[in-house]
Amino acid sequence: MRRSIALLAVVTTLGCASRGGSSEPVAVASPEETVEQFLDAVSATSVEVLAELWGTSRGPAADEMSEDELIKRLGVIVVYLQHERYEVYPPTDALLSGTGDERRIRAQLYRSGCSPVVPFTLQRWRDRWLVSNIDLAPIGNPARSCEPGR
């Protein structure tokens, strides 16, 4: 029940944030900076920034999804990735594809005594990087206390 209330609050907050017409593209030089901006946008529950930083090789989710779909999906991401602070690690296994257009970056989230390391997969799109996948499994259930080892 708590999780539902928390998710509803975040989705309501995201729903109230207007995506507006054309938001400025987020200029990012590296995959690590993209993850940092993404996590900062999670803290600010900024749907505009999240929608510009999340996407695929076809482009940002802001250009590919309806506003309702974005709000639902980003609401879940915000609930799971809430944090007090974070640390982004330099890539160790940076190249995942033969083209060099994909990177994997890990970020350690610190919240309520938990500190899971979360893998982010990024996809190059034009002259910047987009978060294309987030492995939420290491976080566990955000409505529960930390499980041992998280």
Main attributes of the structure:
globular, disordered N terminus, two-stranded antiparallel ribbon, 150 residues, alpha+beta, four-stranded antiparallel β-sheet
Average pLDDT for all residues:
81
What separation lies between the terminal Cα atoms? 23 Å
What percentage of amino acids are in beta strands? Answer: 15-25%
List low-confidence stretches.
Answer: 1-25
What's the story with the biggest beta sheet?
Answer: 4 strands, antiparallel
What fraction, in percent, of the residue positions are helical? 25-40%
Structural class: alpha+beta
Order of helices and strands: HHHEEHHEEEE
Order of neighbouring strands in the sheet with most strands:
3-4-5-6
Radius of gyration computed on alpha carbons: 15 Å
Number of strands: 6
Characterize the overall form.
globular
Number of helix segments? 5
How are the elements arranged and paired?
Layout: H1 2-16, H2 31-44, H3 47-53, E1 55-56, E2 59-60, H4 61-64, H5 67-81, E3 85-88, E4 102-110, E5 117-125, E6 128-134
Overview of the molecule:
It contains 5 helices and 6 strands, in the order H-H-H-E-E-H-H-E-E-E-E. The strands form 2 sheets. A 4-stranded antiparallel beta sheet has the order 3-4-5-6, covered by helices on one side. The chain is an alpha+beta fold and 150 residues long.
Quick structural gist:
With 150 residues, the protein is of the alpha+beta class.
